[in-house]
Design goal:
With 743 residues, the chain is an alpha+beta fold. It has 3 domains: 5-35 and 421-592, beta-galactosidase, domain 2 (3-layer Sandwich), CATH 2.102.20; 56-417, Alpha-Beta Barrel (TIM Barrel); 598-742, Jelly Rolls (Sandwich). 14% of the residues lie in helices and 32% in strands. The protein has an 8-stranded parallel barrel. The protein has a 7-stranded antiparallel sheet with strand order 18-19-20-23-24-27-28, covered by helices on one side. A hairpin with a 2-residue loop joins strand 39 and strand 40 (672-678). The longest helix has 20 residues, at 400-419. The chain starts with a strand and ends with a strand.
């Protein structure tokens, strides 16, 4: 039987706080151990110091900067998918969102589409991109390939490489490696002067991608990179799929990924396979769902020795594009909850794929998207690689950007100790996809202080509120039960709470609010919606009183004032959800951002042609998935001519925003395809400033194909149109200009 009260014994110190709880409370528990020291000494790194003497290294728990733990944030942006003129502004947005490291693929086909003809110009100018990153204080990890995937034609291989049937691609085949050696030499020219050892931003090189074969191939690529002069602190591989034969210890850091759901699934049902596991806390790092269209991984598990490496990620789904057969349209909470579970599962580098969307560049010989027509497994739009990322392909800010920014503020100010804290799973935890009653939570702790992570959210399946809950942590120094009174875990809520946290010399025993950031001895917390805010301190660490604060209300103007035992003043601001998401920290100044204001202006759309009959949709490949329409199919599309208003300020990055219902749509300018879209319930946007005055004077046309009721494609339940008694549907709902007017 649970007693009515207990004493908190924390790290050997008996606190004076009596915690009472109901006989009917649901007390969930976890046993925390003091972790052993992190391991090091076996990592085979390149030059770790830059000319200023700063060092990047690694231990078994995290990356280190000048020997101290750090918890950086990494976001993917592909330079060759974004016009060069936009790089600086878009990178600034990434940095303002809390990104420290930019990850970018080098798509071979973007640079040597024709054998021997290299193109590093314009938006393909990687050196200029790296220089821009360096000027903005952003570090870079270059994902060199030779195979990248990235939803690019042939996974990034030029057609002439793909045509060599006598070569064994992605192996130690001498002919293939000879061609790859030339690629790496070209990359090395672009990176000359941009490496960390030279004072540049490039701190890491990834070899190949999603490779599960012989480690000899990956080691050959690493050797080739070093011989080409790519001397960097970090050499990397993707941690999936699990390899039967591990890479030699310490040679390549494995980076992992997790997505809420994938466009690549072969079926047209929601939440395929084991995707539900990414909404739970776990010690296993490998996500069986990532790239499972080609990898065919059935069983979860990590490569032997994975625990010797820090839990770093490079592909947490920042969003998800729509493939033709599978039209994923995440709710922003899908992204946010998976990020939280990765954090609560032990990650010490949050890396997003994608963080910034893009558009495929024009090819010389072909279009450059992944397609079933080229023998690959998915059809993606010809141009769009928006990815519904935190920052869209035209620089649009999406809702998850703000939640992630709030989290990144926390990691920048409090992430260093967290990076060294292992994860402990509770005594009772979810074991199957149909368990919606067991609370999903975890603890990260150094044996004394730490954080409790809670996720009561799962994509496409509402999770009920959990009533009368308290947490019991069996710590080496004693037992901690909190909060004081049992609370209801809100339906579909996710958050983390601190315990034994040092706030400017005061010991916060626990809080039922989420820490955001600090400015000196002023600390900012976000309320947990639906949970009363409690802050309980060890009275011995305070000179002021009281030491317990219950039922605090969010107030952006009036802080809670304390004094530490040494007499130093401490301020705590508790912010409501909206204010906490608007909080920003620029040049060490904390402020609440004024919401952006946008103006909308209707656009004239003149019907030129009604749609013909809906096309028969062919099924292709072993999985018999629906194939995307071809150019010839669009001869049956409904067509509108779009006339833009004459006076639009291109400096304000205006968007043409189209809302429609149909199968697929595309925009052409003077007969050239400039944007395309598979209907997924999201707006179809076009950034106008990329096209200058031609967009106003040229022939801009919108084409839409009808959507069949029986189309063998997945559309999110919330976005599926109402067909009524019709077998097809096609509707242009609106066309308008959207542009920012101020804050």
């Amino acid at each position: 039987m649970i007693s009515r009260s207990t004493k908190l014994v924390l790290a050997g110190v008996c606190a004076s706080l009596a915690i009472s709880f109901s006989l009917h409370a649901e007390v969930v528990s976890a046993s925390i151990q003091t972790p052993p020291p992190a391991e090091t000494g076996y990592f085979k790194l390149g030059t770790t110091k830059n000319p200023a003497g700063h060092e990047i290294s690694v231990n078994s728990r995290s990356l280190l900067f000048d020997g101290a733990p750090v918890f950086p944030v990494m976001g993917e942006m592909h330079y060759s998918r974004v016009p060069q003129a936009e790089w600086r502004e878009e990178l600034r947005k990434m940095k303002a969102g809390g990104v420290d490291i930019v990850a970018t693929y080098v798509f071979w086909i973007h640079h040597e589409e024709i054998e021997g003809q290299w193109d590093w110009s314009g938006q393909r100018d990687m050196k200029k991109f790296l220089q821009t990153c360096g000027e903005l204080g952003l570090k870079v990890i270059v994902r060199c390939g030779p195979w990248c995937h990235g939803e690019v034609r042939n996974g990034g291989f030029p057609d002439w490489v793909q045509a060599h049937k006598d070569w064994k691609l992605r192996s130690t085949d001498t002919n293939f490696l000879a061609a790859t050696k030339i690629l790496y030499a070209e990359i090395a020219k672009q990176l000359s002067g941009q490496l960390w050892k030279d004072g540049g931003p490039v701190i890491g090189i990834q070899v190949d991608n999603e490779f599960g074969g012989s480690p000899n191939y990956l080691m050959a690529l690493k050797k080739m990179a070093i011989e080409a002069g790519l001397d960097v602190p970090l050499y990397i591989k993707t941690g999936w799929p699990a390899m039967k034969t591990p890479v030699p210890l310490g040679e390549l850091l494995p980076l992992f990924g997790a997505y809420p759901d994938g466009f690549w699934s072969r079926n047209i049902k929601p939440m395929d396979g084991n995707d539900w596991e990414n909404f739970t806390f776990k010690i296993t790092r490998t996500d069986t769902g990532v790239g499972n269209d080609t990898l065919k991984v059935e069983k979860a598990g990590d490569t032997s020795g994975t625990e010797k490496y820090p839990h770093l990620t490079c592909e947490i789904g920042g969003g998800m594009p729509a493939s033709y057969h599978r039209r994923i349209n995440y709710d922003e909470r899908d992204v946010e909850a998976v990020v939280l579970t990765q954090l609560g599962s032990g990650s010490s580098l949050l890396g997003y794929y994608m963080y910034h969307g893009g558009q495929n560049p024009d090819g010389k010989l072909s279009t450059l998207q992944e397609s079933t027509a080229t023998g690959y497994v998915n059809d993606l739009p010809v141009k769009s690689y928006d990815f519904n990322a935190p920052i869209g392909e035209f620089g649009q800010i999406n809702p998850q950007y703000y939640w992630l920014r709030r989290l990144h503020l926390f990691l920048h100010d409090f992430g260093a100790p967290l990076a060294q804290m292992p994860t402990t799973l509770p005594d009772l935890r979810v074991t199957n996809k149909n368990d919606f009653t067991t609370l999903r939570w975890s603890v990260r702790s150094d044996g004394n202080s730490g954080y409790v992570f809670v996720n009561n959210y799962q994509r496409l399946h509402p999770l009920p509120a959990k009533t009368n809950f308290q947490f019991k942590l069996h710590l080496p120094g004693g037992e901690l039960v909190f909060p004081q009174q049992p609370v209801t875990i809100p339906a579909d809520g996710f958050y983390f709470w601190p315990f034994n946290m040092d706030l400017g010399g005061a010991k916060l025993i626990y809080a039922t609010a989420q820490p955001i950031c600090r400015h000196g001895n002023t600390f900012f917390f976000a309320e947990t919606p639906g949970v009363p805010a409690e802050f309980v301190f060890d009275s011995k660490s305070l000179k002021s009183s009281p030491a317990e604060f219950f039922g605090l209300k969010p107030d952006r103007k009036r802080p809670t004032n304390l004094k530490s035992a040494s007499g130093k003043p401490i301020q705590i601001y508790l912010l409501n959800e909206a204010d906490s998401l608007a909080l920003q920290k620029i040049d060490d100044k904390v402020s609440i951002e004024v919401p952006l204001k946008f103006a909308k202006q209707k656009v004239e759309a003149t019907s030129l042609r009604n749609a013909g009959p809906a096309r028969d949709i062919p099924l292709v490949g072993k999985s018999q998935i629906a194939a995307a329409p071809t150019d010839s199919d669009f001869t049956n599309a409904a067509v509108w001519q779009i006339k833009l208003p004459a006076k639009i300020d291109l400096a304000k990055n205006p968007l043409l925003r189209i809302r429609y219902i149909g199968d697929a749509a595309r925009l052409t300018l003077n007969g050239k395809l400039i944007a395309d879209n598979f209907f997924a319930g999201r707006p179809f946007d076009l950034g106008l400033n990329r096209y200058g005055q031609e967009i106003f004077t040229g022939d801009l046309r919108l084409e839409i194909l009808p959507l069949r009721k029986d189309a063998p494609i997945f559309i999110e339940p919330k976005d599926r149109p109402d067909f009524g008694t019709n077998e097809t549907v096609l509707k242009l709902e609106s066309a308008e200009i959207v542009q920012q007017t101020g804050n």
